[in-house]
Amino acid sequence: MENNDESSYEKLGCGMILLKRYISLSDQVEIVNICQQLGFHVNGFKECIPSGEKLGLQMMMLGSTWYPPSCYPDSIKPLTVPRKIISLVSSSIQDSQRHLNLKDKISSKCSNHCVVKFYTNTDGLALHEERDDKSWYRFRRKGRPVVSMFIGDSAEFFYSDARNLSKVDNILLESGDVLIFDNNSGDIFHGLHKIIPNSAPLPFLRKSMLKPGLLNLSFRRF
Hints:
This protein is of the alpha+beta class. It has helices at residues 25-39, 83-97, 136-141, 202-208; strands at residues 8-12, 16-20, 46-47, 57-63, 113-119, 128-129, 146-152, 155-160, 169-173, 178-181, 189-195, 214-221.
């Protein structure tokens, strides 16, 4: 795994760990190419508007254990999560543990399920909880983290320990960032305030040819 020498670590409130610029340029380009290739399959990217979403987006489900949204046929066979992406997610979990106290230690096991989203406009994502997912508590009992990777345009991310938009914290998520929710952070309310148009790094755009938008890979089912 290629390391990014410019990466940095930040521990946020509510049990979240942010790895800034964690994914190297070459790995970002490779992930885009992988997702584009998988997206051409019949069970690849679909136009989906899950509950709480306001952003126009395409969605793709990867992994052996999953609960497909209504835009997928019930009989569809999911695609396998590529080894390259699994390796990167596993490394991000291990690296985040270096910055945690023992009481905050999270599992080093990686999810075998990934939700891939490509946001195509700049509207916002409603404030929501991971535990809104019907299977959240089963994942939480296993003590495994949620890992979310961001590639492409930057996004304003907001979070709070209460469903109150007047009491939220904000951070800027940029291409190459990885956000990790530890096993105690299921009650966090969070969402995307907006995507910043034309904010992806030019060297990345030249190599990946990714169209305007934000590619998000979220590992959250186990």
